Amino acid sequence: RDLGQPPQAQVERPQRGVAQLVLQQQVDPPARLGQPSEVVQLPSNWAARRQVDHLHRIPQSAQFRHQGAVIEVPPGALVQAAVDDQAEDDMAEDDMAEDDMADDDMADDMGAMPEECAEENACAVFAPGDTIKIGYAGPTAGDFSAFGTDISDAGLLAVAQAEDLEGFSFELLVEDTGGSGEGGAAVANLFASNPQVVAIAGHTFSGSTEAAIPIYNEARLPMLSPSATNPALTGGDQDVFNRIPFTDSIQGRFIAEYLYNTLEIRAMVALHDGDTYGEGLATIVQDEFVALGGEVLDFSAITPGETDYTAPLTAVQALGPEAIFYGGYDAEGAALINGLGIVGLNEVVFIGADGIFGATLLEQAGDNAEGVIATAALPPESEAVDEFNAAFEAEYGRAAGSLSTFTWHGYDVVSALISAIRDVAVLGDDGNLYIPREALIDAVRGLSGFEGLTGTISCNEDGECNTAGPTFFSVQDGAWATTE
To answer: What is the pLDDT of residue 84?
Structure first.
């Protein structure tokens, strides 16, 4: 990827007869360069004439030598040498010869680099001792932390169980998005600025994902989401986003058909939280329900974060619906459920989707949750699932799926990304590991026949890696149970 010429950095003039070598870790894009992270004082006859007042990006580890002194330059660093006029005049012919030797050393280092990594930023580079980093982005604190905690814990287990790649181990960097678009963009920028992050397990929520996709597309970081289901996320002018859950197009159609055909509902109200996921799903349910011949009496948003929704529920009660669909997450879902009896909607069917399924709703709604319906995607029974469930409970002290149904998806996305990384990584003659970024993007999009806990993962040209539908659950005797 052509980042263009980096901006001219402001460097303090060195003392007369002294050169400065400034090492600055690469950030992307270069326009966001911060302060130099390290300044090394060197003799004035340092062999750096060709680097005067210029920035040079070092694509891999390199050594600069002078009269026994050695400077190690880290991968992806920006090197600037500023030499004052007097120091430049004092450079002798023997120092120029030393400069040529340094150039020869650099050429030797470049020769050890795989051909596909010759262009700037074409590869992530790992020196011996480095870890191959995958980023996880999701809500790990606050109201939605059940989702993020479940998924990230499963991903950490996948990394712990993964075998090393040519002596290099894997690492999952977990960052909290808060479930918001702003948080998603902030985390995306953080990961994009780290030259050793090669792929993203996430994001978790659709709104956060929507904000992050353009950033990762620019940084050329492939994504594999365990849970972002808004249909509009795939396709478009990007090729980095992929996901393994069913989309809301499928989920919304199943819910509408369940309401109309199975429960024989003919008049309903659709509520949502105004988020990309919640409003998008509610729109699909509304459209599909109307197409079947049903009537949607009201389609409106509630205010997220509140605990008392008696006012909007009173308005709903006046319309006389047979069912209420809610597009959103468990905290607001529980608050709505707790208000049904207050306004006389006890007998109305309350149905949500995978956003409300899980332990949080049961804890916050208590007995009021009895009979509530939600969708979820549980993995098919298998020996691999049993082994994972046992390992997960042993590691974290709770059952897999007790917080959300995306536990197994979290394990699968990290495992699939590791598999794709193995397919494209190259061990250089210099002992460094190189991961070509474009090849990894293609490998993730090209996943085919990967056997995960959730089923077989095969991605199409748009990054949709699963077209299976959801399972319906209802709360029976205080627990979620499958329903017909």
So the answer is: 40
Residue of 130, 125, 100, 128 whose CA lies nearest to 113: 125
Q: What are phi and psi of 356, to 5 degrees?
A: -105, -10
Report the length, in residues, of the chain.
Answer: 484
Strand stretches in 244-341, DSSP E: 267-272, 295-301, 323-327
Beta-carbon contacts of residue 363 (< 8 Å; ≥ 6 apart): none
| Calpha distance 133→418 (Å, rounded) | 10
Radius of gyration of the chain (CA): 27
CB atoms within 10 A of CB 297: 16
The residues pairing with 351 across neighbouring beta strands, listed in sequence order, are 325, 373
How confident is the model over 379-402, as pLDDT tens digits? 988 999 999 999 999 999 999 998
**Crossing angle of the two packed helices 383-396 and 407-424, in degrees rounded to 10:** 110
What pTM, to 2 d.p., does this model score? 0.71
Burial 344-355 (b: 16+ CB within 10 A, else e): ebeebbbbbbbb
Phi/psi for 67 (5° steps) reads 50, 50
Which tokens in the block code for residue 285? Answer: 């349910």
Report residue 225: phi and psi, to 5°. -90, 140
Give yes or no for residue 1 having a pLDDT over 70: no
Round the average pLDDT of the chain to a whole number and report it: 83
Q: Using CA atoms, how far apart are residues 316 and 318, in angstroms rounded to an integer?
A: 5
Distance between the two ends of the chain, CA-based, in angstroms?
A: 52
For tokens 């996430």, what's the residue? 202
Q: Which residue type occupies 178? A: G
- Tell me the average pLDDT across 69-77: 52
β-sheet bridge partners, residue 134: 172, 199
Q: CA-to-CA distance for 101 and 483, rounded, in angstroms?
A: 75
The yes-or-no verdict on residue 249 having pLDDT over 50 is yes
What is the Cα–Cα distance from 326 to 154, expressed in whole angstroms? 28
Pick left, alpha or beta for residue 224 (phi over 0 → left; psi -120 to 50 → alpha; otherwise beta): beta
Nearest CA-CA partner of 136 in 342, 410, 361: 410
**How many whole angstroms separate alpha carbon 457 and alpha carbon 237?**
23
Structural domains for the chain: 18-111 (no CATH), 132-246+380-457 (3.40.50.2300), 248-376 (3.40.50.2300)
